[in-house]
Amino acid sequence: MSAASLHSRTAGKPSAGIPPTGRGGAPRKARRNRRWMIFSLLPVVLFFVVLSVFPVFNLIGTSLYDVRWSGGDSTYHFIGLENYRQLFSTEVIYWAGLRNTLIFAVCAVTAQMILGFSMALAVKRAGAMGRTLLTGIFLLPIVVPPIVIGSVWRLVLGREFGLANGFLGLFGIPPVDWLGNPDIALASVIFVDVWHWTPFVFILMLAGLEAIDEEVLEAARMDVRSSWQEIRHVIVPMMLPTIVITLMFRIILSFKVFDEVYLLTSGGPGTATEVVNFSIYRVFFNQDRVGYGSAMAVITLFGMTLAIIVGRGLLVRKRKNDERKLEQ
Amino acid sequence: MKSRSLGRAVSTLTIWLYAAIILVPMVWVMTNAFKYKIDIITGTVFAPITWSNFEALLFSRQSNFASALANSAIVSGTATIVIIIMATMAAFTMTVMRVPNWVRWSILGWALLFNMLPTLTFVGSWYLMFASADLTGTYFALITTQIVNLLPIALFLMMSFMASLPPELIQAARMDGCAYDQVFWKIAFPLVRGGMIATTALVFIFSWSDFAIALTLSNSDTMTAPVAISTYAQEFEIRYGEMAAATLLTIVPAITLILVGQKFIVRGLLAGAVK
């Protein structure tokens, strides 16, 4: 695990300040360089414009229409903001989904961060035998297709022949309907997500911990009395960049959740495990309400964009404040 | 010193316990793939081994899983190759050349934002676009959307690898009169191969795992392996054995990669997560 790659955040800036040559034959070479620049960037720009920028406008446009399908043909009726009015007044499922998505994100990410960080601390401080094998096992949930994770846990949590209930049965505990009981279905889905993503947090945290300068740590150790103080006042502040980045990354990913929920519960029972992505999918593809689905997608897109911009803004401001404090 | 070795034992134990929690459900499902249905239902641990689930899955006429695996390979393979070529060239230009600021920041800004937004908000629009061109259910629709979906990650990864090239080398080549396309082919391309392998591995894995796009844009002929698995799970009577066998076959690329290129995946994940 190279620690250096964690600090390659400056990749966006031109790494080599190469001076322009300005010798003879320069115009021809400048043209050639220009041609290369366009040739190398154009495909990326084209893909982005056609398949990710245009769709946003397409969604906004479609959200103003009532779209009806008949025999493979669609007819569009302009209805203005009616879809949005409906979404904000009579819609129930989408907002239940938003609530669940927030609960899901907060609970799952908190658990993953705490578990992942503690395990990384334990391994860093005391070491563990069989690092390569361990890393291999921990990578497994990350690289296995999410749909497979869903399928594995659907079988494990299955009411009748599942491993979980089989295990409880050994102690004489009656079978639990993990995914069918509205009171515990969301908790089950969160549990699966924690299982799925804690190893990822662990790997990032361990890399961050190993990047801390050992001498700085030794020096700081003189000033603290307990290992709890050391964690609280030395390790956590030094790890803060890694912690914040991992946290942001996980929160964003948890808003993308779809595959596992699709297989585990399909949002049910009722709206117990409904998530935003599933609502959009259902309205779009099961109910064929394309205009309404577009309105949902637009609101989700803009809500998330706003959240991301505000989140990043806060982060940048915090970092600037910290730097100012350091200078004083 | 005594407490230190005790701490070591406890931490080793904890971490291996977690590893066991990861492994047990996976291994349990994998073993089901080799059991008869009756042994799965009764929960027999040491049941006689059978290949019947794999036979039913791959060779029976009702099953389309063999073609689903082939579809997955075609879609992910093509998409990965195109992504790597595009991302490597663009990453070189963005890292080494003086790209006008507005071009740089519109590409990077959009890539960053698009990468964070849920794919599900875009599939609806993609469906409408491809439907109006009568292209839904084609490999073309699946591959192009896969490309745009994973292009940001590949771009960020390749940029971090390009940034670690020694600047003196590039400068020297420029002094010798190389134009940037020559610098790319003669200096950057050979040196960044390790990074390209890491990115290829990660992009292929993500593309192979994709479910949302394939679910909405494929039809019964172009269905990929993850979509096929989801249909098994939703049938009225779940065919446990075949589902387990399908699961096992679908994670073969992931397992192979862990065994062969563990270092690459970790490196790629670290570089990718930082963005």
TrEMBL record, chain A:
TM spans (from-to): 36-60, 102-121, 133-153, 184-212, 233-253, 292-315
Subcellular compartments: Cell membrane
Membrane topology of the entry: Multi-pass membrane protein
Statement: the UniProt record of this protein carries the keyword Transport: yes
Leader peptide range in chain numbering: none
ABC transmembrane type-1 domain mapped to chain residues: 98-311
Pfam family, any one: BPD_transp_1
GO cellular component: plasma membrane
GO BP of this protein: transmembrane transport
UniProt keyword Transmembrane, yes or no: yes
Superkingdom to which the source organism belongs: Bacteria
Keyword line: Cell membrane, Membrane, Transmembrane, Transmembrane helix, Transport
UniProt cross-references to PROSITE patterns, sorted A to Z: ABC_TM1
Segments of this protein annotated with the region Disordered: 1-29
InterPro entries in the cross-refs: MetI-like, MetI-like_sf
PANTHER family in the cross-refs: BLR7065 PROTEIN (PTHR43005), SPERMIDINE_PUTRESCINE TRANSPORT SYSTEM PERMEASE PROTEIN (PTHR43005:SF1)
Similarity-based family: Belongs to the binding-protein-dependent transport system permease family.
Name under which the protein is recorded: ABC transporter permease subunit
Origin species: Pseudooceanicola pacificus
From TrEMBL, chain B:
Bilayer-crossing regions: 6-29, 36-54, 74-95, 107-127, 139-162, 183-208, 243-260
ABC transmembrane type-1 domain mapped to chain residues: 69-261
Any Gene Ontology biological process: transmembrane transport
Subcellular location: Cell membrane
Any one GO CC term of the record: plasma membrane
Gene3D superfamilies assigned to the protein according to its UniProt record, in alphabetical order: MetI-like (1.10.3720.10)
Family matches, as InterPro entries: BP-dep_ABC_trans_perm, MetI-like, MetI-like_sf
Matches recorded under PROSITE patterns: ABC_TM1
Membrane topology reported for the UniProt record: Multi-pass membrane protein
Leader sequence residues: none
Protein function: Part of the ABC transporter complex MalEFGK involved in maltose/maltodextrin import. Probably responsible for the translocation of the substrate across the membrane.
The protein's name in its UniProt record: Maltose/maltodextrin transport system permease protein MalG
Annotated organism of origin: Pseudooceanicola pacificus
The organism's taxonomic lineage, starting at the top: Bacteria, Pseudomonadati, Pseudomonadota, Alphaproteobacteria, Rhodobacterales
